[in-house]
Design brief:
Elements: H1 5-22, E1 26-28, E2 38-44, E3 48-58, E4 64-67, E5 77-82, E6 91-96, H2 97-106, E7 115-118, H3 123-129, H4 137-141, H5 144-147
Length: about 160
C-alpha cells in the first residue's frame, strides 16, 4: 500500500519526536501551522530558556524543497527526512533555514514563485546535504562546545 503525503508527514513527525525524546530535548507543537511545525526548547540553568522554531519536510524519497516565505521566520531551522515510510533507513538533514536557501543559491538552481523543488536525489544534492546529516539533534540546535551537552536544572 502506498502511503499518502499526510501519512508520510505524520510518520516523519513521530520519527523526529522519538529522536528528540531520546536526546532529552523538549518540544511543543503550535496550535496553528504557519510555517513552524515544532518548537524545540531548553530550560537549562546554564543555557537559560532558549527556543527555536522547526519546519519538517518528510519525503518517501530523496527530495529537497525551499520556499522563500520561510525567510520571514526568525531563527527557523529546517529538517529534511528521506525514505520515510519505506523499508530504507530514514536519513535526516538539518540546518538553519537560511542555509537551505544558500544551497539553492550556491548551485544556481532556479526558483519558481520563490520555491525550489527537487523531487529526486542527485549526487550534487547528496554532496550539498552531507555536511548537514544529523548525528546529534542536540548539537544541531545548540553548540555542544559552549554548553558541553549538560543541562543543569534549578532545584524545586
Amino acid at each position: 500500500m502506498e502511503l499518502s503525503s499526510h501519512q508520510i508527514e505524520k510518520i516523519g513527525e513521530a520519527y523526529v519526536a522519538e529522536k528528540l525524546y531520546r536526546e532529552g530535548i523538549k518540544f511543543a507543537r503550535p496550535d496553528i501551522d504557519e510555517g513552524i511545525d515544532l518548537i524545540v526548547y531548553t530550560d537549562c540553568v546554564d543555557e537559560g530558556f532558549r527556543a527555536l522554531p522547526l519546519q519538517l519536510k518528510s519525503f518517501s524519497g530523496e527530495e529537497f524543497f525551499t520556499d522563500q516565505k520561510y525567510l520571514k521566520i526568525p531563527d527557523l531551522y529546517i529538517v529534511y527526512l528521506w525514505n520515510v515510510g519505506t523499508e530504507l533507513q530514514t536519513r535526516a538533514f538539518g540546518m538553519p533555514y537560511s542555509e537551505a536557501e544558500k544551497i539553492v543559491d550556491d548551485h544556481g538552481w532556479s526558483r519558481k514563485n520563490g520555491r525550489y523543488v527537487r523531487t529526486r536525489g542527485t549526487s550534487t544534492l547528496h554532496n550539498a546535504l552531507v555536511p548537514f546529516e544529523i548525528k546529534s539533534w542536540r548539537s544541531l540546535f545548540w553548540d555542544r562546545k559552549k554548553h558541553k551537552g549538560r543541562c543543569t536544572r534549578k532545584s524545586k
